[in-house]
Design a protein that fits this description.
Layout: E1 2-6, H1 10-19, E2 24-26, H2 29-33, H3 39-50, E3 54-57, H4 63-74, E4 80-85, H5 88-99, E5 104-109, H6 112-121, E6 125-128, H7 130-135, H8 141-153, E7 159-162, H9 168-177, E8 181-184, H10 186-193, H11 196-210
Parallel strand pairs: 1-2, 1-8, 2-3, 3-4, 4-5, 5-6, 6-7, 7-8
Helix pairs in contact: 1-3, 4-5, 5-6, 6-8, 8-9
Length: 212
Amino acid sequence: MKLYLDTANIDQIREIADWGVLDGVTTNPSLMAKEKGDYKKILKEICDIVKGPVSGEVISLEKDGMIKEARDLSEISKHVVIKIPCTVNGLKATTVLAKQGIRVNMTLVFSPNQVLLAAKAGASFISPFLGRLDDIGNPGINLVYDGMDILNNYDFNSEMIFASVRHPEHVRQAALAGVHIATVPYKIYKQLIKHPLTDVGIERFLRDWQNR
């Protein structure tokens, strides 16, 4: 499973990239709004660090506006992927962009039917938001299994991104479900590597070595 980082913070991206386990980055308007500086410059810097897929999201809600923004953003780097919401206009824009070789990450996906439509439109990546479904008492993991079955049944080229990760358990669920990618917030990366028994083991080894 590929691991992406869900942030637009350059320091966080550099740190996790240095671990050697980072495959890509996802951003959105909310994450970008937290960072100071020019949107395109930030996106370019992220691409230069990661050298893998980096999602930048369009703001327009209309087909033509989405296409225009997508073409503009795609010129920043070959690594840029265009995030487009799963709407009628989003499907229309994705169909056009896919034929032009511009990769789309269809976002805000909440149902198996949306997964199917996104795949048929030619989205390179499809992002179901699991945490938001869990938040309203609808187990998001069910969408993952249904969505993966749909993609596999028809040999779609789309990759599923397990998005809206709330805790380390979501990462475990994603890996066991065979999801292609999980995009994980910075704080959860830090939680993934921590275990109290690891810390105790290191402390014991060092104590034994010093007392030899």
